[in-house]
Amino acid sequence: MHSFVPAKKYTGVVAPHAPRKYLRMSGPERAVGCVFVPSDFGSVECLADMSEEEYQRFRREAPSVWNDFAAWWAAGCGEGR
């Protein structure tokens, strides 16, 4: 078994109010986006209220283990396991 842990953690604050603008995050599976403000990313709005451009930038730059997994897999480390 191999575990992947991002080098940087998500940090932020809980939004002081419900989303007001874009409301892109509907449904219980997206509830965190309605309250999470990635303040260390420079945002003052929850994910649901970010413009599409801001949200996509956050998605590209936010901590993720998927790139680490892809590099590990491409190196052949996933074969035969």
What does this protein structure show overall?
- The protein has 81 residues and is mainly alpha-helical.
- It has one domain.
- The chain is built from 2 helices and 2 strands.
- Strands 1-2 form a two-stranded antiparallel sheet.
- It starts with 12 loop residues before the first strand and ends in a 7-residue tail after the last helix.
- The mean pLDDT is 82.
- Main sheet makeup: 2 strands, antiparallel
Q: What is the gyration radius calculated from CA atoms?
A: 16 Å
Q: How many domains, as an integer?
A: 1
Averaged pLDDT? 82
List the secondary-structure elements in sequence, H or E. EEHH
Helix coverage percent of residues? 10-25%
TL;DR of this structure?
By secondary structure, this protein is mainly α. It has one domain. It contains 2 helices and 2 strands; from the N terminus they run E-E-H-H.
Write the layout of secondary structure elements.
Blueprint: E1 13-14, E2 36-37, H1 52-61, H2 66-74
Antiparallel strand pairs: 1-2
